[in-house]
Automatic annotation (TrEMBL):
Entry-linked InterPro entries: F-box-like_dom_sf, F-box_dom, Leu-rich_rpt_Cys-con_subtyp, LRR_dom_sf
Protein name as it appears in the record: F-box domain-containing protein
Gene Ontology annotations of biological process type: SCF-dependent proteasomal ubiquitin-dependent protein catabolic process
Organism: Papaver nudicaule (Iceland poppy)
Source species, domain of life: Eukaryota
Cellular component, GO annotation: SCF ubiquitin ligase complex
Domain named F-box: residues: 39-73
UniProt-listed Gene3D superfamilies: 1.20.1280.50, Ribonuclease Inhibitor
Length: 373
């Protein structure tokens, strides 16, 4: 009889345990679970794209080098900072679980950005807004490398020279959308963009006060696919309307003015400019005239007569929009699906009710003060 010292808690002796398994061979043991690197790449891609949370996406690449490569290849968005809710043009993600957010200091980004562009080979969305200086980001363009980035945000980038833009934009030949909102880009910088980014379809230059007519003219002449242009509150663009209508393929145009400028009579588009635009850009689908309080009846009639494809018209703060102007829009713009106005115009209640009866779900009335942008 075995003593208690030679027996474990479950009543099996150590000697008996060794005898019990002494004849077991390797073939009798359970087989190993298949290793993850035996899964084909398309299967791993499918698994990654089915992940729901950002934490899961970020942890995916910690498994092994192969899984890290899958994660890198599926990385579509790279943002500096935490502003995922920032306004973005159509196609730019506002909140993507697979979006990589750079939470590192400005001093370290210059050493990492170029490496990240090479690492994330299929990156499409890049947001570098609110960075005061991008000089350190620029590195010699690697041979045989072209970034696939299509959407680039450079809002509020205020300390970059033309030389910086000249070195930076050859990295991005596939850009289709770029935003320079409130950035200090000049005409020379815009020329670099036009030469390097021939596929450009959308450009936002709102509040870029260094841009002049010359830069707009060069941009429209070289970027033949450009269909969306925002030049609202660009104070140095005075005769750029002629350049705009010379590239009559525009489908979206924003000419809105800052409330403060419009109040002083500066930076506001007038009737003559609207008439020229409507005749020169018959393909317009979206037009923003916010705070353009100098547009009179002739301008609204020109929109109704010429912009037959117009789907959305924003006219907040247009004080001289009247009943006859509203009627011209109603009769001429048959494809209009959204007219956005406030109560600071000359339209009577009866005219608004008549418009609503004819075009249901088209009129959006904002009952507040003139919109302050």
């Amino acid at each position: 009889m075995l003593s208690s010292n030679a027996t474990n808690k479950r009543g099996v002796s150590k000697i008996g345990f060794r005898i019990l398994f002494s004849n077991v061979t390797d073939d009798d043991r359970p087989c190993e679970i298949p290793r993850t690197n035996y899964l084909p790449a398309d299967c791993l891609n499918h698994i990654f794209n089915r992940l729901d949370t950002r934490d899961d996406c970020n942890s995916f690449g910690l498994t092994c080098h192969e899984w890290l490569q899958i994660q890198n290849d599926n990385q579509k968005s790279l943002w500096y900072g935490r502003k995922l809710h920032e306004y973005s043009p159509e196609g730019f993600p506002r909140n993507d679980n697979r979006c990589c957010i750079l939470k590192i200091s400005q001093e370290r980004i210059p050493m990492l950005l170029c490496k990240l562009l090479i690492r994330f080979r299929n990156l499409k969305h890049l947001n570098l807004s609110h960075l005061p200086k991008i000089t350190g980001f620029v590195a010699p363009k690697p041979p045989v490398y072209e970034s696939k980035v299509q959407y680039l945000y450079l809002n509020n980038c205020n300390a970059n020279s033309d030389a910086v833009w000249s070195s930076m934009f050859p990295w991005f030949p596939r850009l289709t959308c770029i935003s320079f909102r409130a950035s200090h880009i000049t005409d020379k910088g815009l020329e670099v963009v036009a030469k390097c980014c021939l596929l450009l379809e959308t450009i936002i230059l709102s509040r870029s006060h260094l841009i002049t007519d010359s830069g707009i003219r060069f941009l429209l002449h070289n970027c033949r696919k450009l269909g969306s242009l925002s030049i609202d509150s660009c104070s140095k663009i005075t005769e750029g309307i002629k350049a705009i209508i010379s590239g009559g393929g525009l489908e979206y145009l924003s000419l809105s003015a800052l409330f403060e400028s419009a109040k002083d009579g500066e930076g506001s588009i007038n009737t003559k400019a609207v008439v020229m635009i409507c005749k020169g850009c018959p393909l317009l689908k979206k037009l923003d005239l916010t705070n353009c309080n100098e547009v009179e009846l002739e301008g609204w009639e020109a929109i109704g007569q010429n912009c037959k494809n117009l789907e959305r018209l924003t006219a907040y703060g247009c004080r001289k929009l009247c009943d006859r102007g509203l009627q011209a829009l109603c009769q001429g713009c048959n494809k209009l699906s959204g007219l956005f106005i406030d109560d600071k115009n000359m339209c009577s209640r009866s005219a608004l009710e008549l418009f609503e009866r004819k075009d249901c779900n088209v009129l959006y009335l904002l009952k507040t003060d003139i919109i302050r942008r």
